[in-house]
Amino acid sequence: MSINPDKFKSVIEKILKNKDVLIFLGICGLLILVVSTTFTTSPKQVVKEDDQSQQEEKYEEVVEKKLEKILKEIDPTKNVSVMITFDDCYEYVVATETRKNIRSEKQDENKTSTEEEVDSKVVLVQQGNESKPFIIKKIYPKVRGVAIVSEGARDKKVYIGLIKAATAVLGITPDKVEVFVK
User: N or C end of the chain: smaller count of CB under 10 Å?
Assistant: First the structure.
């Protein structure tokens, strides 16, 4: 099938003369551009899950050990065990590079149309032959609750001291702390 150049030229001229069709084609082009930038695939973030979960477990263990050490200072028997439950997600704040492009076009004496295009990309860091997102901040999960088992908790002063210490160290309310007697 061959296209007649004269026929093609006349169709293009008709389209260019008809403003409605031209505006429609312009809007379609803009929509295609917006949709294609919106639904592009983000760079693959390579995260070694084993390393990540080990780091998270270490954090939780360290917090428990530190709290247990402090609570043993309060309990005269020094016989204290601690378990802390955390919300199950860590949050990472990654660096992004954002570019704004603002276009203004005067349509009439009184009307001006403005288009704003925002392009945001995750900043990647090359580590060996892997690209990883540049992490600005790691937000640790919040403490959901604490269980303390103590031999000295029979004494009211020790019992209250354990609760106060746990709430102060972890920044939680007393209703999230349970103390049990061994």
Answer: N
pLDDT tens by residue, 13-50: 776 677 666 676 667 666 676 655 554 444 444 444 45
Q: What are phi and psi of 144, to 5 degrees?
A: -90, -40
- Measured between alpha carbons, how far is 151 from 158 in angstroms, rounded to an integer? 10
Q: What 3-state DSSP class applies to 121? A: strand
CA gap 156, 132 in Å, rounded: 52
Q: Cα 164–179–150 angle (5° rounding)?
A: 100
Contact at 8 Å (CB) between 74 and 158?
Answer: yes
Strand partners, 106: 112
